[in-house]
Amino acid sequence: MFGKKVVVRFKDGKILKGWTVDFSPTKEVFHLYKHEEFREQEKRNVVEIKLSSLKAVFFVKSFKGNKDHKKVKTFEGQHKVSPSQRKIIVTCKDGEKIYGTTLGYNSNRKVFFIYPIEPEDNNESIFIIQETVKSVELLEFDKNN
Fold this sequence. Notes:
Layout: E1 4-10, E2 15-20, E3 29-34, E4 46-50, E5 54-60, E6 86-92, E7 97-102, E8 111-116, E9 123-129, E10 133-138
Antiparallel strand pairs: 1-2, 1-5, 2-3, 3-4, 5-9, 6-7, 6-10, 7-8, 8-9
């Protein structure tokens, strides 16, 4: 494995898959080694990604995912161990709804992370650009779940 596996979604709908070794939520730019043409020694397969051009960065387990997997649209019955139990529902401007947990959401921040609630989800975490969000619903904190 070379760095972290990511699926990058741009604001215009374009998607790139690959690996990154220099992603940081505090930097405006990171580099993506493209999955389709990946060769460890070839620098031309490296793409500079600007956060300002993105909707989100999905840190994934697999590039294939599971097309038959139905996304959970409720928190009921979900007991995945997550870094946080602060439940959040994010509705993006393109209509996508993402259910997860967050360590801390602040509408004044440009970016934030969400952690999926279901163990079968292909995403390990999702880094979302605030500018692409239509609405955020923070649910009551539940210490038992």
